[in-house]
Write a structure and sequence with these properties.
180 residues; alpha+beta
């Protein structure tokens, strides 16, 4: 009979959609104070493959990802997402904007996958607590990265693939170091 085991640690990541660089810096500074140092950041690239957030946030959006040096647990994903929702709301109130001025999506990388958190239900999303769902985005294989039919379009771009390959590499080095 198989016995449950503790989950392996995961590498916490966060995607940020925004227009103003100062907002990204505020998010980064706030999350570093709470989650520890950022070790890898992606390049900034246009968030232009969908207009999903344009009505709320305006045109000219960009996206950037960051990962955190300290490893976390997969069980923490709902609380991480609830924290980023609260941060989005605090920044909205502070700016006086009607909609969010920034979208913050936490997730994690394992040896085999990128999982992101969302508050939006859909057929392929798994409820994980507190009104939050897990969204499997990418699979890491021996030959590279495999996307899924529901993978967000911008995550299928090479800048993202390259970034998440590097995050996975750093994660694997951290996990091997933890075992040593």
């Amino acid at each position: 009979m198989a016995q449950p085991k503790a989950f392996a640690p995961v590498k916490i990541v966060c995607g940020v959609i925004y227009k103003e660089d100062t907002l990204y810096e505020r998010v980064r500074t706030t999350l570093e104070a709470e989650w520890g140092a950022v070790d890898l950041e992606s390049a900034t690239f246009p968030f232009d493959l969908t207009d999903y957030y344009e009505a709320e946030m305006g045109p000219g959006l960009v996206r950037r990802f960051m990962s955190f040096r300290r490893l976390g647990t997969p069980e923490s994903l709902p609380s991480l997402k609830l924290r980023t929702i609260a941060l989005e709301e605090a920044l909205r109130r502070e700016s006086g904007a009607a909609g969010r001025p920034v979208n913050i999506d936490p997730g994690y990388v394992t040896a085999s996958a990128l999982v992101m958190a969302t508050a939006k239900d859909f057929s392929h999303r798994i409820p994980i607590g507190g009104g939050i769902y897990a969204h499997l985005e990418l699979l890491f294989t021996k030959t590279g990265i495999r996307t899924l039919s529901w993978t967000y379009p911008d995550l299928k771009r090479e800048p993202c693939s390259e970034y998440f390959r590097e995050v996975r590499k750093t994660y694997l080095q951290s996990v091997r170091g933890d075992r040593a």
